[in-house]
Design a protein that fits this description.
The complex is a heterodimer of chains A (277) and B (251). Chain A is built from 7 helices and 7 strands; from the N terminus they run E-H-E-H-E-H-E-H-E-H-E-H-H-E. Chain A has 277 residues and is of the alpha/beta class. Chain B is 40% helix and 15% strand. In chain B, helix 3 runs parallel beside helix 4. Chains A and B meet through helix 5, helix 7 and strand 7 of A and helix 1, helix 5, helix 7 and strand 7 of B.
Chain lengths: 277, 251
């Protein structure tokens, strides 16, 4: 209880997708504020090495393991390598995924497009959970934090595979939470709203989100701004700590009120004046 | 290595509405994170217990015994806290009435009493404290409701209505005050007990059903409460988070 137990000193956390975006923010908050040692896994080696370098600069042990999470053999090898080099795993954060890059009417979506999104956004999370299961069950402790999305709770226009995959992640979270409720393994889910991740992209790449877009999209969010990636990091820190041991199977929506406002546009104020008798 | 994003140093909290179960643990969690705490509810030795917890942790504390169904009492409660602490950063509405009865046997005054001691007191407190928070453009409202805000339970109709009402108030207020620096969230506990028994009967049947095979202890909502009260949760509003050992994933 309180802040005392939020300490992740001596714990080892795997963060998939830890090279860029929210995954990177989570890895660095766990290292800096939690004192955790971090393992970052993802497809591209340079961003992973960069995150690991920044974590080491903070004073934590860090390991970059290039991994395609859609390949179960690579996932299993990543888990084995973590165990042999870091000694154990306490926390698994499934943050790897691909955004819905192009939206198309359902009749135009190819088999490959569908499978690619489901693999990256759902199957990869399943592979990682399966790969740590024996280790977590044997040590009778573990924390899994999956990253879903508002689209997994609602829907998105012409955004079929991504939303279905994210809904699948929420469902996977619920079943794992139930299955492991007596094994001291907690499984929760974070559904981020819209976050400005431009500061977390590799410096060699042009910014994906222009500043005016951040402003415009922020204005459409009830609280009036985009999320800051570190905010997801601190939620992950809470969920990775002993402080959250009785919380499992939950989806934490961190979206500045966006999903709650779906009944009307953000900022809409009904102006009906009721006549009083 | 405590991260300062989770601490509540210099903050002032008001815990209102519960003199039965939560106040002691909620007050202790907030005080442990650094907040000064006022506790207001029907007069009970539980209020004094809560105050003792806060003082033991080295924070300022005050008990305000009041009738939560009277708006004049609630106005006065806010004045007293402001006179003593100067501000209110955090309001926790912790009403949790015990009431189990078959629907057809519920008397009109009982229905009013249950709805009034929970839903109406939350309404009054949010309004009275909310005015102060709107002036300061800063605030955290945390309503303790229940899994029964979204599930049903036999002989619990009045309770379910009250808890569901608190949830909807949470959602609507979150949007109304989204641009005023105030977040409004709810915590939904499942089966909780201080002693390992709920006193509701058929304990073994219930425990067998629960995925975690145990009840929660009231101090187990403390860490989530502190998180939702802290700056770290600034982008979370209008949400209900269950603390339930996986009950809500049960089919």
């Amino acid at each position: 209880m309180g802040s005392r137990n939020r300490n992740l000193m001596g714990k080892v956390a795997i963060i998939t997708g830890g090279g860029t975006g929210l995954g990177k923010a989570i890895a660095l908050v766990l290292a800096r504020a939690g004192g955790a040692d971090v393992v970052v896994a993802g497809r591209r080696v340079e961003p992973l090495e960069q995150t690991a370098k920044e974590a080491r600069a903070i004073g934590q042990r860090a390991l970059a393991v290039p991994t395609d999470v859609t390949d179960s053999q690579q996932v299993n090898r990543m888990i084995e390598r973590t165990l042999s080099e870091m000694g154990k795993i306490d926390i698994l954060i499934n943050s790897a995924g691909i955004p819905s890059s192009h939206l198309e009417p359902i009749e135009d979506i190819t088999d490959e497009e569908w499978h690619r999104s489901i693999s990256a956004n759902l199957t990869g999370t399943f592979f990682c959970c399966r790969a740590v299961a024996r280790h977590f069950l044997a040590q009778k402790s573990g924390k899994v934090i999956n990253i879903s999305a508002g689209g997994g709770l609602r829907g998105g226009r012409d955004n079929y595979a991504y939303c279905a995959a994210k809904a699948g992640v929420i469902s996977l979270t619920c079943s794992l939470a139930w299955s492991w409720a007596r094994d001291n393994i907690q499984v929760n889910n974070i559904a981020p709203g819209w976050f400005d991740v431009s500061s977390l992209q590799p410096q060699t790449e042009p910014p994906k989100i222009p500043a005016n877009v951040v402003q415009e999209r922020g204005a459409r969010i009830p609280v009036g701004r985009a999320g800051i990636p570190q905010e997801i990091g601190f939620l992950a820190l809470f969920l990775a700590s002993d402080a959250s041991d009785y919380i499992t199977g939950q989806t934490f929506i961190m979206d500045g009120g966006s999903l709650g406002a779906a009944h009307a546009p953000a900022g809409y104020v009904p102006a009906i004046t009721l006549k009083e008798d | 290595m405590v991260s300062e994003e989770f601490t509540l140093w210099g903050e002032t909290a008001l815990v209102a509405g519960d003199s039965r179960f939560w106040s002691k643990y909620v007050a202790a969690a907030l005080a442990e994170a650094g907040a000064d705490v006022a506790v207001a509810a029907r007069n009970s030795k539980k209020l004094d217990e809560a105050v003792r917890q806060v003082l033991r942790l080295g924070r300022k504390a005050m008990a305000i015994p009041i009738d939560m169904t009277k708006s004049s009492h609630i106005e006065k409660m806010v004045e007293q806290v402001l006179a003593e602490f100067g501000k209110i950063d955090i309001l926790v509405n912790a009403s949790d009435p015990e009431f189990v009865k078959p629907f057809v046997e519920i008397k009109e005054d009982e229905w009013h009493r249950i709805v009034e001691t929970s839903l109406f007191s939350v309404f009054h407190c949010c309004q009275a404290v909310g005015k102060h928070m709107l002036e300061r453009k800063k605030g955290r409202l945390i309503n303790i409701t229940s899994c029964l805000a979204e599930r049903g339970l036999t002989n619990s109709s009045a309770y379910c209505v009250a808890m569901g009402g608190i949830l909807q108030l949470t959602r609507a207020l979150a949007l109304e005050w989204a641009r005023d620096g105030i977040t409004v969230n709810a915590i939904g506990p499942a089966w909780f007990s201080e002693t390992g028994k709920t006193g509701m009967g058929q304990e073994d049947v219930l425990l067998r059903y629960l995925p975690s095979k145990r009840y929660g202890h009231p101090e187990e909502i403390g860490s989530l409460l502190v998180y939702l009260a802290s700056d770290a949760s600034d982008f979370i509003t209008g949400q209900l988070v269950y603390v339930d050992g996986a009950v809500m994933v049960h089919i």
